[in-house]
Prior knowledge:
Elements: E1 5-14, E2 17-27, E3 32-36, H1 43-50, E4 58-63, E5 66-67, H2 72-78, E6 79-82, H3 94-104, H4 109-122, H5 138-150, E7 156-160, H6 168-183, E8 187-191, H7 195-201, E9 204-209, E10 212-217, H8 219-224, E11 232-238, H9 243-250, E12 255-261, E13 264-269, H10 274-286, E14 291-297, H11 301-311
Parallel strand pairs: 3-8, 3-9, 6-7, 7-8
Antiparallel strand pairs: 1-2, 1-4, 4-5, 9-10, 11-13, 11-14, 12-13
Helix pairs in contact: 3-4
Amino acid sequence: MSAAISVKNLYRYFGKLKAVDGLSFEVPHGSVCGFIGANGAGKTTTMRMLSTLDYPTMGSIEICGINVVNHPAKVRSLLGWMPDHFGNYDHMTVLEYLDFYARALGYKGKERHMRIQEVMEFADLIPLADRRSNKLSKGMTQRLCLGRALIHDPQVLILDEPAAGLDPKARVELKHLIRILAEEGKTIFISSHILSELGEMCDSLLFINDGRIVHHGDAESLLQGTDAAGGFFYDVQLTGEASKLSDWAVTSPYVEFIEDRKRGGRIRVDSDDPEVAADLLRRMVKDGLPVIEFHKEQRNLEDAFIDILEKQ
Length: 312
Ligand code: ATP
């Protein structure tokens, strides 16, 4: 069976600027893939091409085995696109807005009514049905945008920064909706700057930089790796002042003080050998540090992302 998304040697030039520089990757059916990159890395450009909204300069894209350039209408029937900016019509209510899109997608009569109801229930839009669509909060707007992308019940969803600008509660709500869609077996390709969030919900993560893939793998393997220089991180908590830890680290070979925390800090060492960790702890106690907690820390995705860029 073909992958839900298959991209081969994809390029997009804007004049001399190479926004997308030879991307090749696949996203299997029913999986969630996080698309990560710094500002200007080429995420939106790639997603717009996947969604038939822009032409590749070179290379091929298939959605469920169908070529996006040769058969855009077929591809559009299979995918839902949620852009990072929401295009809106001032005079429409939420219900009218969804109805407009359902009509544009060719739904008629009872079926149209059912599709709209289903989407409104799913995205919790029923209480907002008569509200003007340009007067919604950011969280409500994103739910409406997701609802619109779901009207034709697409198999593949391309979501460009859906959580951008949302408060923590709205982010949790959106994440919950995305999780339900993933459980229903939809393939989801999602970009975000909130890496920790993507790690939780994605089966794989695709990092790009300057239009090129710099890493494609699962979150777990990224988090267990070392940093670019082969280091490991430990969280150390003290009963006394946190500054004691940074003073101690300055005088200790092979230990680097990384960050201050409320009661201690984070240090980096070159080895994850338990003997080295035990020796570190022995030395801290011997040197008079009032240690109450000492444990190896998983790296976070932000660390992993920065390491990958440094390895470049
Ligand atoms: P962000 O996270 O800031 O949204 P991004 O990863 O989505 O960034 P893109 O919007 O894909 O990045 O832009 C990639 C590069 O292509 C940037 O240098 C951008 O300025 C350029 N670019 C994008 N669209 C156009 C366009 N229509 N014309 C010219 N250059 C463009």
